[in-house]
Amino acid sequence: MSIMSTNVPGLDKGKGLYFFFIKAERKTPSGLIARPTLTSYYNSEQFKNRPYNPYNVYTSPNETILCPDTFQSMYSQMLCGLIMRHEVLRIGAVFASGLLRAIRFLQLNWRDLARDISTGTLNPRITDSAIKERLMSGILKPEPELADFITSQCSGENWEGIITRIWPNTIYLDTVLTGSMAQYIPTLDYYSGGLPKVSGMYCSSEGFFGINLRPICDPSKVSYTIMPNMAYFEFVPHDVAAPLSSRHAPQPPQLVDLAEVEVGKKYELVVTTYAGLCRYQVGDILQVTGFHNSAPQFRFVRRKDVLLSIDADKTNESELQKAIENASLLLREFKTSVVEYTSYADTKTIPGHYVIYWELLVKNDYSAKLPSHDMLNRCCLIMEESLNSVYRQGRVADNSIGPLEIRVVKNGTFEELMDYAISTGSSMSQYKVPRCVKSVPIIELLDSKLVSVHFSPAAPHFDSECRP
Predict the structure, then answer these.
(1) Strand 295-303's sheet: what is its strand order?
(2) Which residues does the UniProt record annotate as the domain GH3 C-terminal (predicted)?
(3) Residue 243's pLDDT is what?
(4) Looking at residue 240, what is its pLDDT?
(5) Based on the domain organization, do 221 and 181 belong to the same domain?
(6) Fewest Cβ atoms nearer than 10 Å: which of 23, 75, 288, 292?
(7) Cβ-contact 219, 182 below 8 angstroms
(8) Domain count, the chain
(9) How many helices (DSSP H) and strands (DSSP E) are in the chain?
(10) Average pLDDT over residues 150-179
(11) By C-alpha distance, which of 387, 388, 345, 380 is closest to 455?
(12) pLDDT (tens digit, 9 = 90+) per residue, 98-110?
């Protein structure tokens, strides 16, 4: 906030509407407590008894954050945010997907929320005693004019700019929008009217690593300055493979110290932390963009793991996302965008092929036409044209990969996917849509929501003289 306040004056004059969640603790067979790192923090005395700071005042009371029931927590946090709508200067969540889930929650529950505000009574589904006591002790009271306003804004089909309509003093959105979260930017622009979007920190369960010193920059230009007091940082050069020998085991890669990284090069992050991790490979691929004084600045590129592979092909997250972005350009004339996606390598067919699940958002314009079946088939081909040469060689020259398939699913499908993940042990605060799925129940859930199926109508371009 010290950096934000120098870029955005007046943040001490209002509040932040942030959607924070915890997960119920579990015990391992040996009796150790197991919980997500954010749950540990929110349950800590450092959070619960934090000193007053005018730059970090939230609309959500602690009681609403510390309820493990995700519906009750989301409902009560949204209720408080609506009641205090004129005080809200910034809106956020840990990840962009969580922020969009909050908007979806408002779409589904605005009638009950408006009724509570109108009557000053609390929805009977809210049974948590701490939440009830806190809300009924002065926060919730009859406000029929506010309820009428919420009804007027939410009852229509057009939700474009809904964030600034309901929270008119919002200056920016605060959420992670780098890496796989970048695909949510167009949807957030739609709901917020193009508000600035801030990705302020680079952190993980292993620790806090970096901070964005230019928070009001375009999300595509975000770089994080590594804070060398947070851990001991080393890097594995990502562009140079370790030499292999037929007689000897592969040698471990040479680690590069923090002060020796080079601008433009990519590295995998390795940390040694105060908590006891020793040379732990986080799995993030970073690219050096420059220096702040002597501290390197990094752009988050992607996760290390490969997402899709049928044969010799290897498609990673950034390649898949770029292919979807290129295909999405065809949907612009239909005022349609891809709001969620995931994938899997279907090897039941011979040859196997990539399956991409899309959930689409059609903006509210009655003059707009829906994308045709042929247009969505073309999207499949554009995606294939965007993938690497090894994939296209498998499709065209080797016939080892079948035509790419897009399966369009019903609106709300990925929300159900998140609910399923939470029901099986995931944390709502730290949940991210998996960009590749392998679990049979998840694939069955997605397939049960199909709207249409599309295949690439032709083979992508491949020059046999330019084999890798």
Answers:
(1) 201-204, 207-211, 224-226, 295-303, 280-292, 266-272, 232-237, 256-257
(2) 319-439
(3) 41
(4) 53
(5) no
(6) 292
(7) yes
(8) 3
(9) 15, 20
(10) 94
(11) 380
(12) 898 899 899 999 9
